[in-house]
Amino acid sequence: MDAIPNHTKNRLAAGELALGMGMRQARTVDIATIAKNCGFDWLFIDMEHGTLDVDRAAQIAFASLAVGITPIVRVPGPEHYHATRLLDAGAQGIVVPHVDTADQAQRVVHACRYPPLGHRSVAGPQPQLGFKSVPVADATRLVNEQVLIIVMLETPNAIANAEEIAKVEGVDVLLIGTNDLCAEMGIAGQFASTQVEEAYRKIIAACRKHGKHPGMGGVYDPPLMQKYIGFGMRFILSGSDLSFIMAGARERAAFLRGVKR
Asked: What share of the chain is helix, strand, coil (3-state, %, to 5)?
């Protein structure tokens, strides 16, 4: 018995880019197929910002499994029940925001992974296993193997602790929340700052040293994205449904305003 593959985890393991689409406006399950057909590897189901509830997030996560895009949920906080309810419902990855220390990262692992790495409570049949009846020992092992645990580093303190966080067994991705990081450093919106560059290089070095994957969120200017990917960023939040809608709508409106009558 195999688990439904985590395509994003496989791409990262192969050293490839894993591209995610943020979900801010969408509230229906067809967003999973839309994102997949647009070429994205993972769907960023955001429950930290906005009004998305648990049930709707779970429905979108389940639909994502069927079309081959990785459902990754950013939970609103570190409490274990935020993450485990979505994992039980089909999420293949969890993003926990505002992780500043290795101890906090370890608590995330304890909440999100089954023993022996963590202490996640064993649920019933798993969506990630197609709801098939699988011996508990096999089910927990298979789900552990496929889940992605992503911690967000969003403060100077988190960057200073990057290597210790990267050492934590069971963490897969260190994701820089560049918007919050810049705000915390007193350089809000200055994504090209040398301070940001230094933070990115530190995260990338820590990930390479300890076998983790570096991630980038909050940077959407193409030349800057290209630059930081060149540094070694691999888990890329590429933009949101709202930003894509607005960009396309502005382009169409500008074209139509320019049509000669």
From this structure: 50, 15, 35
Quickly count: other Cβ atoms within 10 Å of residue 168's Cβ.
Answer: 22
3 band by pLDDT with thresholds 50, 70 and 90: confident
Rounded distance between C-alpha atoms, residue 15 and residue 90, angstroms: 25
Name the residue type at position 11.
R
In the chain, pLDDT over 70 holds for what percent of residues?
Answer: 100
The model's confidence at residue 261, banded by pLDDT at 50, 70 and 90, is: confident
Whether 21 contacts 38, CB under 8 Å: yes
Look up residue 115 and give its amino acid. Answer: P
d(CA 78, CA 93): 14
| Residue 195 in tokens | 């301070």
176 in Cβ contact with 124 (< 8 Å): no
Residues 6+ away with beta carbon under 8 Å from 197: 231
Other beta carbons within 10 Å of 209: 12
Q: Please, which residues have CB within 8 angstroms of residue 165's CB and are 6 or more apart in sequence?
A: 99, 101, 102, 105, 151, 153, 158, 171, 174, 206
Give the integer Cα–Cα distance in Å for 54 and 75. Answer: 10
Q: What is the mean pLDDT of the chain?
A: 96
Tell me, which fold does domain 7-257 have in CATH? Answer: TIM Barrel (3.20.20)
**Active site positions, annotated:** 49
In whole angstroms, what is the distance from residue 1 CA to residue 12 CA? 23
Indicate the burial class of 8 (C-beta count within 10 angstroms; 0-12, 13-18, 19 or more). Answer: buried
Q: Which has the closest alpha carbon to 240: 70, 40, 11?
A: 40
- Read off the amino acid at residue 161: N
Residue 59 C-beta-side C-alpha neighbours within 13 Å: 10
Distance CA 111, CA 197 (A): 32
